[in-house]
């Protein structure tokens, strides 16, 4: 491994786990109890990458959704997400290959997600990726979720590195803003299918060549 990039930090939903629809369905199922739903367009354009708590705060501004219901809806949403995760979350070979090779190459690896801690833990376990990670961070490890850079600042600090020694792999606007504000090199992907060993190594090579 060269002296430039030392670590790769991954967002989780839409990067390592194809869970965007799972979160959308789980939140709508929880909101439906109170006669509310959000459209797929709203989910992708407005809410993508935000924590459930952030989404509920935004919904309370738009709809008549009392804040006193937030904790109940959030709890239901996490339960529904877990149900879907246990049904659908499985190992993806090209991710296992990518992380195992990066680890072999000497890179430190971490996950920084806007999801709650238990969701990150279970998804990483069920996808068989947890063994390659130095650690994972959730929205419960910070005061401010993405697009605030706090979670990436914390990850970089825990790695004992400078921002310019880290690559962040992100897919959505809120995550991209957080990673860029933290000063890391940002590899933007469109879906979990883009997260390959070749693509990450090629990006690292490009960053180090331009340094």
Short summary of the structure?
The chain is α/β, with parallel strands linked by helices and 211 residues long. The chain has nine helices and five strands; from the N terminus they run E-H-H-H-H-H-E-H-E-H-E-H-E-H. Helix 5 crosses helix 9.
Question: What's the layout of helices and strands?
Answer:
Elements: E1 7-10, H1 20-32, H2 40-47, H3 52-62, H4 70-88, H5 93-104, E2 108-112, H6 117-126, E3 135-137, H7 150-159, E4 166-170, H8 173-181, E5 185-188, H9 197-210
Parallel strand pairs: 1-2, 1-4, 2-3, 4-5
Helix pairs in contact: 1-4, 3-4, 4-6, 5-9
Strand percentage lies at 5-15%
State the order of secondary-structure elements, H for helix, E for strand: EHHHHHEHEHEHEH
Number of helical elements: 9
**Rg from alpha-carbon coordinates:** 17 Å
Features:
211 residues; alpha/beta; 9 helices; 5 strands; 10% strand; globular
Report what the structure shows.
This protein is of the alpha/beta class. 50% of the residues lie in helices and 10% in strands. It has 9 helices and 5 strands, in the order βαααααβαβαβαβα. A 5-stranded parallel β-sheet has the order 3-2-1-4-5, sandwiched between helices. α4 packs parallel to α6 and α5 packs across α9. The longest helix is centred in the middle third of the chain and has 19 residues. The two termini are 15 Å apart. The model has no long low-confidence stretch (mean pLDDT 95).
């Amino acid at each position: 491994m060269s002296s430039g990039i030392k670590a790769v930090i991954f967002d989780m939903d839409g990067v390592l786990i194809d869970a965007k629809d799972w979160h959308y369905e789980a939140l709508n199922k929880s909101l439906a109890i109170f006669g509310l739903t959000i459209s797929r367009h709203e989910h992708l354009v407005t809410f993508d990458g935000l924590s459930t708590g952030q989404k509920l705060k935004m919904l309370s501004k738009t709809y008549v959704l009392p804040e006193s219901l937030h904790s109940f809806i959030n709890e239901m949403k996490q339960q529904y997400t877990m149900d879907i995760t246990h049904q659908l979350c499985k190992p993806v070979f090209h991710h296992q290959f990518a992380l195992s090779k990066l680890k072999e190459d000497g890179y430190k690896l971490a996950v920084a997600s806007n999801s709650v801690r238990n969701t990150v833990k279970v998804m990483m376990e069920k996808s068989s990726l947890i063994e390659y990670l130095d650690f994972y961070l959730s929205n419960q490890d910070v005061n401010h979720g993405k697009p605030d850079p706090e979670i990436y600042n914390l990850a970089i600090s825990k790695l004992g590195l400078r921002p310019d020694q880290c690559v962040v792999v992100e897919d959505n606007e809120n995550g991209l803003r957080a990673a860029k504000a933290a000063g890391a090199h940002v590899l933007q992907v469109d879906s979990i299918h883009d997260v390959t060993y070749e693509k990450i190594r090629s990006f690292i090579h490009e960053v180090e060549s331009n340094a």
